[in-house]
Amino acid sequence: MTNTLARFGAAAIFALLSGLAQTHAQTAGSTAPGGDPVLIEDIVIGSRILADFGVVDGFGHVSARHPTNPNRFLMSRSLAPALVAASDIMEFDLDGNAVDARGRAVFLERFIHSEIYKARPDVMAVVHTHSLGVIPFTVSQVTLRPMYHNAAFLSAGAPVWDIRKGFGETDMLVRDGARGKSLAEMLGDKSVVLMRGHGDVTVGPSVRIAVFRAYYTDIDAKLQSQAIALGGDVNYLTPEEGAKADTVNLAVLDRVWNLWKLRVAPTLAK
Amino acid sequence: MTNTLARFGAAAIFALLSGLAQTHAQTAGSTAPGGDPVLIEDIVIGSRILADFGVVDGFGHVSARHPTNPNRFLMSRSLAPALVAASDIMEFDLDGNAVDARGRAVFLERFIHSEIYKARPDVMAVVHTHSLGVIPFTVSQVTLRPMYHNAAFLSAGAPVWDIRKGFGETDMLVRDGARGKSLAEMLGDKSVVLMRGHGDVTVGPSVRIAVFRAYYTDIDAKLQSQAIALGGDVNYLTPEEGAKADTVNLAVLDRVWNLWKLRVAPTLAK
Amino acid sequence: MTNTLARFGAAAIFALLSGLAQTHAQTAGSTAPGGDPVLIEDIVIGSRILADFGVVDGFGHVSARHPTNPNRFLMSRSLAPALVAASDIMEFDLDGNAVDARGRAVFLERFIHSEIYKARPDVMAVVHTHSLGVIPFTVSQVTLRPMYHNAAFLSAGAPVWDIRKGFGETDMLVRDGARGKSLAEMLGDKSVVLMRGHGDVTVGPSVRIAVFRAYYTDIDAKLQSQAIALGGDVNYLTPEEGAKADTVNLAVLDRVWNLWKLRVAPTLAK
Amino acid sequence: MTNTLARFGAAAIFALLSGLAQTHAQTAGSTAPGGDPVLIEDIVIGSRILADFGVVDGFGHVSARHPTNPNRFLMSRSLAPALVAASDIMEFDLDGNAVDARGRAVFLERFIHSEIYKARPDVMAVVHTHSLGVIPFTVSQVTLRPMYHNAAFLSAGAPVWDIRKGFGETDMLVRDGARGKSLAEMLGDKSVVLMRGHGDVTVGPSVRIAVFRAYYTDIDAKLQSQAIALGGDVNYLTPEEGAKADTVNLAVLDRVWNLWKLRVAPTLAK
To answer: How many CB atoms lie within 10 A of CB D228?
Structure first.
């Protein structure tokens, strides 16, 4: 983790080699669903940021509620997050049906997104990861707690959803609406829900905030593991401290977003 | 580990500087043994992927059973995995003899591969690593267990082979058929076997699957170490969950393989 | 952390892509406040070094007391440390007021700096980070101690400031002079103060020394965590050993500073 | 550590940007002391490898006994290991005096090297590091032990030297012959000695072997920390296994050396 900011160069080179610049040329004049190039670019950039930091590997996804039709959401076709481009973004209804599939493969777990958008009108973006920091907490009796102000949103709680409780011995995937609904119920009014033996989901009022929360949930989990390993009690943020600090985080979010965007798309960020 | 996807750029540059592009030009028109350029490329790409992620360092190897002659297998000459090219692939019989050595140095531990191919007709690929995540489990009383669905294949078990039990105080290497046979017996019908004070071996029905398993065995071991450090019981995947999840992993494998391939051979992946 | 020196290349590329070279061209002929291009360059380079090592992420700041007016200090406008350039440096008085804001956004937590400069005439530079190594110690009952000679400055002590003690349930930020004064009082005559659930502050007689201390505070914390995890007593540096070793560190500081400078600005370092 | 092999690209770029190619041009026709370009190149490459892997940071050094005069050794002027070039190599006598200083700054701790060469006629190379993996073991009651065959040389033992025992409260540095002699006595006939609150020293019959041992001492320490954290007994290599495995390691050393050399000097390795 100490190296994350050391790799602008690599990300920059990747941007050039992988044709991200072109990707954004496409984005600029995009006729992609949603008709909002900035929103679609946030999904693309957010997916690449989480891949760049290793919060997602070949799996995981970032989605956004449709800007003008609250009963639709935007999400990439089935593709590794690091490779998502504007032209890969598809439109889905809140039952997880692709509005215009055109034969493109879709994510098995799109129901994570559709059911949360259905249950949470306030949620405008959803991120699903297999965060390596978080996974130990999904199978532990230890609760994920806020270690510092950047992860203040955790002070509202981060419940663990165990698919086995409602669905028995499964392939662990949220592959239908019933499983997605159950996950959304465990999320409740929180910003984060952990999935036993699987990963986590973060939500927010914008793609940037959901991505920010996915990133700092991973960091916070690693910090909490270190604090516990030191032994003795850990002095976590209180709910009131967390609520107040979270407000500030959202206000200064663009400072870090612009930095992260430069990591994955330097040519664009200029 | 959080940085693994952050380094496309570096890998891309390496591809150009180290002449990987040429390597693949060779691969395309390869007259290498096995006569299957795609299979040979998978061995090359798989070796470089595991090196790129640090699952192997200067040591370790990836092999494949000969596509048309089940009594033969394909493996690089003695060379660091990061440097393996199509022209380095040699053909061996199931006693570990090079069919056409032409003076090339061979791996001392090729018997890991030959004896597993002999004992397991279903196995089409074998990977040997000194995975840093796994080594602690090779000398511990703690059993490696599946932490999440990506490592579901571990739910069938990952036994530890101690060379000392059958062969006394050795140099720890599987340098002959007898040691290879003993290791293959400990592997049994599993996908992974750990080697005390040495590393591990993963197998599968294809190079891509054996490499996938080598990668996620390393990740899972690191996650399990973190979960144990948190204290309290750990809620591992059940055998049935593991069996079901593994089926899905194999179905979506190419999504992550194509991503990894781009890491080490961007010019090829285009 | 084992990889930090492996990334000159990435940093070099970043330097070129992000126009750092130009930045330094600006620096050379800078008319920035303070009128000392070398001092301003140290703030720029120090900010980028800490970002390059991940000691700071999108947040954190480096400041220096004005070279000719001890009642002023120099600090970037509100910006991610990795992106700070000479032209971003602003001048502030010791109440944290921008002397010539020209509409530029300023850091909420500039009072960390202003109050320490007020309380500590010997301090010529201040660094604030959310160091991932340190944060566990800010919420732990375990005291941060010097593990080795490079972190000898810790032998004088590294107290933990808990904002809640003096200010109740807050947003955790040092957003006014009263909070800054309280933090400065906890720092006392030390080189480092930890901030509960937030990060740390290091100070020194120069930017280079304050940055050196921020870096080795992060490293030392990670080393101490490892030593504690081994179990048994840990044999820390004694106060007298620490005092003697610190003197040597300051004498050889430029050897490592010049290396770090090359990491983030190779074109300049030539 | 999982990322070490992922960064050929960065190292390659660094090689180009930092003029390493030229460095080696110089090396080729070098008139440096010792008159052995290959030996001097090994010191240069070894220094850069250890920096590239983070086994050394801005501090640490690699030396070699003079190939024709056993009462002399070769070592860089005072410089960060990552920046050492052939033209920086100086010649010293076994009392640590520079034979031809020409005003160049020398390392304070050259006595680590001089006294070991004096005490150990079999030693042809010495490496000193502040290895982050090892430092916790230098202040712990837990003994560093061989986890796997690549670190087999540890089976002979890795004693800890505490400067305080012989010299009281010091600046921790081996800054004279008496301290060097005491350290050499603690090393005895071993390949590794740890230095409390400081780092370690590895020795060998060649630069490549001493560097190999410095690298795997760091890796082994990290692996042992992980194994201990799992709880329960750890099944280390036995002395006889270690002795046998070490013989093999030395025989296959060039496979990994050539890989590492490519990391730091791709243009040269071609």
So the answer is: 18
- The interface predicted TM-score of the complex, written ipTM, equals 0.90
| C128, C61 contact by CB (below 8 A) | yes
**Strands B160-161, B192-195: pairing kind:** parallel
Q: Which residue of A has its CA nearest to B5?
A: A52
**Could you tell me if B266 and B20 are in contact, meaning their C-beta atoms sit under 8 angstroms apart?**
no
Residue from B2, B7, B216 to probe the interface with A (highest A Cβ count within 10 Å):
B2
d(C-alpha B25, C-alpha B19), whole Å: 10
**Catalytic residue selected from A109, A169, A185, A240:** A109
Give me the pLDDT at residue B70, please: 97
pLDDT of residue C10 exceeding 60: no
Chain D closest-CA separation from residue C241 CA (Å) = 5
Host H or E run for residue C242: helix C239-264
SS3 C253: helix
d(CA C129, CA C106): 17
Q: What is the pLDDT of residues A70-115, one digit of tens each?
A: 999 999 999 999 999 999 999 999 999 999 999 999 999 999 999 9
Contact (Cβ atoms closer than 8 angstroms) between residue B261 and residue B171: no
Distance (Å) from the C-alpha of residue A229 to the closest C-alpha of chain C?
A: 7
Q: Between the CA of residue B213 and those of B126, C5, C134, what are the distances in Å?
A: 10, 30, 35
* B residues 4-43 lying closer than 8 A (beta carbon) to A: 4-10, 12-13
Report pLDDT digits (tens) over B44-73: 999 999 999 999 999 999 999 999 999 999
Residue A149 and residue C171 in contact, taking contact as beta carbons nearer than 8 Å: yes
> What's the N-to-C CA distance of chain D in angstroms?
26
- Substitution target from C1, C3, C16 for chain D, most D beta carbons within 10 A: C3
Could you tell me if B200 and B50 are in contact, meaning their C-beta atoms sit under 8 angstroms apart?
no
Q: Which residues contact residue A227 at a Cβ distance below 8 angstroms, ignoring those fewer than 6 apart? A: A147, A234, C135, C136, C139, C140
Say which of D109, D115, D169, D241 is annotated catalytic. D109
Cα B193 to Cα B138: distance, rounded to the nearest angstrom: 9
CB D104 within 8 A of CB D98: yes
Rounded (to 5) percent helix, strand, coil in chain B: 50, 15, 35
